[in-house]
Amino acid sequence: MTNAPAIQSRVRVPSNHLMAELLGFRDTHLRRIEEAFPSVQVVARGNEILLEGTREEVDEVRDVLEELLILLQEGERLDADRVDRIVAMVRAEVEAPARVFTETVHVGRGRAVRPKTLGQKRYVDAIRENTLVFGIGPAGTGKTYLAMACAVEALLEGTVRRIVLSRPAVEAGERLGFLPGDLAAKVDPYLRPLYDALYEMLGPDETARMLDRGTIEIAPLAYMRGRTLNDAFIVLDEAQNTSPEQMKMFLTRLGFNSKMVVTGDVTQVDLEAGRTSGLRMIGDVLGEVPGIAFVRLGGEDVVRHRIVAAIVEAYRRYEQRLVEDVAEEAR
Question: 296 with 270: CB under 8 angstroms?
Fold first, then answer.
């Protein structure tokens, strides 16, 4: 069997500034691409990058470089994680990476939130296209943050008149009953991540004004019973800690001209032993209902520190081994 013949190709970069950004500090971005495609020779000369190797791999490297250039021309910055993600997406032949990374959710004050993975873009698309969306995945995949960004965008565009954010007040292995204050003071720690996201998107002053006017409402799940939420963008966070009864109660709060997003991680259920998570069973209940979308994010969508993705994957493998061991013992 003969080796495929080598071909040569050139990628022209419009300016010295773009070339410097594309190559990275001390050519770090270029080195990462070379490591990903070791059989392709990559040489930067002036405003050109010369490629030599098999046609298939040269075409892939060219695609990577062109996608990176599009991002730079759109004003995006490159880092090692983004270069690696684009290499992986080009190799997987999924949607054009630049289209994923330039998708924009407007959150006011000239700011924008953008998906950082293909899974996140599909999540944002699902929120925009459906009445009810379940975003299920591990920590760090942007489930809550992107849902809240879409909620703020809908509010600022006038699509809805208010935002309602909720969480179940379930303790993650610790008892908070000894904390001073009334019920509102005791549940505030559970809702703090929602406040943090709002402060980042809208700023503390605008967030405070909207909270005072009731344009944004943050409430524990227990306060939802008996309500009908019209003209609202509703987000339920940490939904893995709802019971099936609570989940049904919350979902039936949906009113006219409203949209609802439910987020959670079924691997981090903090309910007491023996209690069923409403999020774990919801796919079996609502999987066939039109207007409802389920988006499942994975370790490849984790956008926190790289080690977080490794931790998520390590736990997944460990839990899979436990399941296999139980099945083996049952035989």
Answer: no
